[in-house]
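Many introductory courses stop at the sequence. We go one step further.
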Amino acid sequence: MNDLSYGLRLLRAQPGATALTILTIALGIGAVTTLVSVASGVLLSPLPWSDTDRLVQITETRGGRQGRIAGTMLNGSYLAWADAPQTIEGIGAYRSDSVVTLIGAGEASRLNTTLVTPSMLELLRARPIRGRVFEAGEGTPGGPSQMILSQGLWEQQFGAREDVLGQVVELNGRAHTIVGVMSRDFRFPSAETRAWTPWVIPTVDAGNGGKRGVIMRAVARLRPGVTEAQAAAEGTSRAIAAPDAGFLGLSLFGAKEPIQIAVRDVKDAATAEVRPAILVLLIASTLLFVTAIANVANMQLARATARHRELTIRAALGAGTGRLARQLLIENALAAVIGSAGGLLLTVALHTALPSVLPADFPRVDAIAIDGRVLMVTLLLSLVTTVACGILPLLHARRLEIAQALSDSSHGSAGAGRGPVAAIRALIVGSQVAVTCVLVIGALLLSRSFIAHVTADRGYDPANLLTAMIPFPSSYDVPRQAAALDRIHERLKSRPGVTHAALSTALPLVSSGGFTGFSFTSPLRSGVNVDAESIRRVVTPEYFGALGIRVRAGRPLTHEDDVTVPPAVVVNRSFVRKYLEDIPIEQAVGLSLGNVAVRSPGRDKVEAFIVGVVDDVKQDGPDGPPQPEMFVSFAQLPGANYGSQAFVVMRTADDPSAHVETLRTALREVDATLALDAVMTMDQRIGRSAARPRTYAVLLGGFAVFALVIAGSGLFGVLSFSVAQRSRELAVRSALGASRSEVVRVALRQISVALVAGLATGVALALGLSNNLSPFLYGVSATDWLSFGIAPLALILVGLVACLVPARRVAQTDPVQVLRQI
């Protein structure tokens, strides 16, 4: 108790140093424990379903290449494996998170729903808190449809009424009977899903010789003792024997290579994209913790050096090494415990901000919690802090020379600022500089990558663009959709401040549009057929002007491209490069794509021609390779099924956000029952798409700034203490004729060596580790010379600022005053 009381008195006696020590420990531990909680929740915590240890994701590939929508498979492969499988207990499919309009439960609302096969709920061991799950056969097209509510939707929209079972509501205009309510813990495939509807997977054979392809995500449960490789082998053999999807497979995979089935643990598949980033940030936070604790250890060593007379007197009065060790460890343990508590409180505070800080598509955010792992790590870090900060003062205390210490003046001895202690402190500072250099270089690389990502040429001009989706109720047949789109388009074109207005079946960063596969006779080589797969976008002619897509050869679509003339097709450069042997784009204009490139009822045999070539548009972001694309006009596809939604894009003369009401008014004038969804400017969509790189850059940048502050304070502390301890030596040098610049140079020599050595080590470490950042970089090399040049310069600047005050103190020291005190 005496040691504890004495330790508390020492902490209170130096409030500034104590506060700095505790704050440094708290920030270092808080950074690590926050990242540990993220890693624990996202990567290690169990999935929110029952008995998930044998659940695997099924992915179809062609020649090892996934489809355009990663992690999916086609209906032919699914149905072939679902029939009496040997290595799996069962297989289920789902199509996640379509946004629908719910009517019949108070005010109409928009919510995320997921289509699931009844077998999917069985695989997940889903147990509703009210009612039942779906039964086999439910969800058959044309038949009655059912619906299961999430507990949140049941409480918020239905008032948690017990009589909700059997109630009929409308989803996008189609009647659904509520048959069950899931518990709050059931979150599939994500926490955003509010309801589930049944799904029956259709066969490939669509009748009349046609084929039907359906894309889905699939999950299976392995039989006990079966490996993923064994299941993949059976799935591959089943898929090979499945009905050939023909051009449907070509459209999805872009190749006719052999089918392969990949099997992977569900949790690993769900977190594959973020796992490398979490590990990198966890390593970065650990480096930050090491830097922080090194700074605290340095401060404690300085305090121990300043207390050498006190410790020596204790030793002279009979205190042994164990007694001194206990006292020093208790003093450091007090600061470590208080700092650890502060770090844990910081972690709790950061947890409340994580949902808003992390990107919206970051997986398993709801699983992040302060659990036993986080508390164990906090305890471990507290112990490490106590030992690391107490060991150096203890080693210094063991080296005390009692006679010399008792004879030293209170102003320090001539050699106190040198020797082993000074060397250790310089080594610590050099290590801090090295670690900080690594963090700063990493932060600069990610920051430059983020800037390159946001400012990249995407093939269109995002400025002054307002975008939105128009979902059509199921009551809207194809002719009614076409008529509504025509009227909406006419109204938007005439609005003041709207320079361009266009409609499309897809939009960059929102929807990739439809895929099409077709075969045409090569216009360059007689008798040679070309198998092509392309994204097909159905647009109004103003689409190119609205988005600012550059036409490089020929012309864009016009209003003259209707049913009275041959189908006109605009293709992108990637299409020419891949299927037209990369001929000059001017020569591609006028070439025929055969009579299957543009299909619509009654026009199947009409030959289509390329009328223009446009620049590649990076639909999914700047880091994705451009895909072959073709654009056709709504007017040339009468009776074609556009799907259940369309997209509108408006270019305005001023702030596009000011025209949201203009868009809503035009929609109400056409049909008051239609609603807008996902209304955003294109700049907002780009910002959302860059959420992950921005988050990674901000986090690592924050670590780097904190490390810079720590390194600067470490340099300042070491030099200030060295100057104070060597005051008599420096005064003697000055009295013997040394100039002020020579005295300053002597004082700065050791710290300068530590700074240079730390920078060299840091740059070398960063070069060795930079490849780990390569997956997160866009437009910037992992060895970017600018980042590797700025980081050392920043640290040199911090070092100069840190040394400024101590160096000035040396230069202004009056040697006579110092020597009089000897």
